[in-house]
Design goal:
Bound molecules: ligand GMT
Number of helices: 14
Structural class: alpha/beta
Distance between the termini: 13 Å
Number of domains: 2
Largest sheet: 7 strands, parallel
CATH architecture of the largest domain: 3-Layer(aba) Sandwich
Order of helices and strands: EHEEHEHEHHEHEEHEHEHEHEHEHHH
Oligomer: single chain
Radius of gyration: 21 Å
CATH topology of the largest domain: Rossmann fold
Number of strands: 13
Strand content: 15-25%
Strand order of the largest sheet: 3-2-1-4-5-6-7
Helix content: 40-55%
Amino acid sequence: MNIGITCYPTVGGSGAVATELGKQLARRGHRIHFVSHRIPFRLDDTNGNVSFHEVDVSTYSLFEYPPHDLALAAKMAEVSREYKLDLLHVHYAIPFAISGFIARHMQGARAPKLITTLHGTDVTLVGQDRSFIDITRFGIEQSDGVTAVSEFLKRMTVDEFEVKKPIETIYNFIDLSVYGRSRTGHHLERTAYARPDQRILLHVSNFRPVKRVVDVVRIFERVSREVPSVLLMVGEGPERASAQTLAKRLGLQDRVRFLGRQDRIEELTALADVFLLPSELESFGLSALEAMACEVPVVGSDAGGMPEVVKHAETGFLLPVGDIEGMAARTIEILKDEEHRRALGQAARCRAAALFSADRIVSQYERYYERVLG
Ligand code: GMT
């Protein structure tokens, strides 16, 4: 198939999933055309079946806001015509479903089908902004196919937007040959981050308020009173300063390391003993799945789609949002019992392999594409 993919190129779950999906589909022989204003952050090892088409958003003094969404629609239409695309697959409803809708209508009978994948905040936050509700619903209803990354997100979309359109749940996936303990090609050393007697706690996110990164520091403060440990905070975003200030105020600055954006997430994750994700809401929690694939138990909140990914008491522990004491207690319990920690980690890897492997999920996408194409 000839497939156009559009996503946010910046660091984030939806961009990561879209890019990994494109790479996997290309390996299966499909021709993939990424259309975006910048090359997506994980589009590194391209093969001959992958091309990138940059959207050029012209600035003109009359335009107070450069018309990105129209420039994107025009580029999507151009690429669709030139490469005879069978379908356009957009990741994140706003604005991509709308740009895709316009692109499709610019082409009449030869138009590709439009598939929109909902990732989370496009429904839970952006779509809830009053000014976006109607246009998000419109984008969903006008797509030829709609997928959601969890049952939770599917239910929420149906309830909140009252859409009649059938929505298919296709979970996010993980490449088990890349994420795992002791992979060949992993060079990062545990000793670079912790002393031999210290355990490593890890948090990876975009540090938006929804991630509750301040809770991560508070959980660590309780854990570090009982277990010698360090906390690695990976990522960049608006809440980084508050978390950093709190770590300093609590006298933890030598044990909490803010590493900023990192490329080798799979290597860092494989070094961790416990992964913390106490988010307010997660439609799926891709970083939790990455940890599970690396045999790292997850301690986090039982919000949104998290229980579909992390099996409570089997692959980690999920507690109510904001239950810092409970999350700290569970983390301490895991870290004090290495046998239990390993068992949770192994169960996590097995669950990731059984339900969320790239092989399984990419095949689901292929079958869904075929159904939409009729
Ligand atoms: O909020 C983020 O972490 C970024 C956001 C995105 O769309 O880039 O993530 C959402 O999509 C991810 C991939 O499907 C999911 O794993 C995240 O759970 C989801 N984030 C939220 O629901 C807050």
